[in-house]
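Page 37, continued from 36.
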């Protein structure tokens, strides 16, 4: 193949290659924020993790009034579309060797939390509801000691 034909072929195929690369941005991440409630009241301490079956998890700190904004890659970008399991780590360090749990320990692991969320598009009102099931916040020693 002579150089002129090869150059013409590269120039002709380059836009198609660039178009294909631009269309494959990976899974779609949408803005997601909301509130975590426990027994109908805002959970004011902790972190939320939203874990897809494949792909990167999203997480956020839970602020006053139980509010959160999820982050997957960059601050506040949201999470992947789909149905995801959720973990809530709701503890507060209250002194040397002591922590207060603001939600039952079962919620701290996705496989024991029993929580799922469905993300179909951007949302600012996702609500995650927890329950003490008759329990209440408790204090325990850090690291079992």
């Amino acid at each position: 193949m002579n150089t002129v034909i090869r150059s013409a072929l590269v120039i002709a195929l380059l836009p198609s290659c660039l178009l294909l690369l631009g269309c494959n941005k990976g899974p779609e991440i949408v803005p997601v924020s909301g509130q975590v409630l426990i027994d109908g009241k805002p959970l004011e301490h902790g972190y939320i993790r939203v874990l897809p079956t494949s792909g990167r998890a999203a997480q956020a700190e839970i602020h006053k009034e139980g509010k959160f904004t999820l982050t997957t890659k960059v601050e506040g970008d949201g999470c992947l579309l789909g149905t995801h399991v959720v973990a809530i780590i709701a503890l507060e360090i209250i002194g040397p060797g002591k922590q207060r749990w603001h939600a039952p320990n079962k919620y701290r692991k996705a496989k024991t939390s029993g929580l799922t969320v469905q993300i179909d598009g951007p949302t600012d009102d996702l609500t995650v509801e927890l329950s003490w099931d008759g329990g209440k916040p408790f204090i325990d020693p850090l690291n079992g000691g």
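The longest helix spans residues 3-23. Flag for discussion at group meeting. The mean pLDDT is 85.
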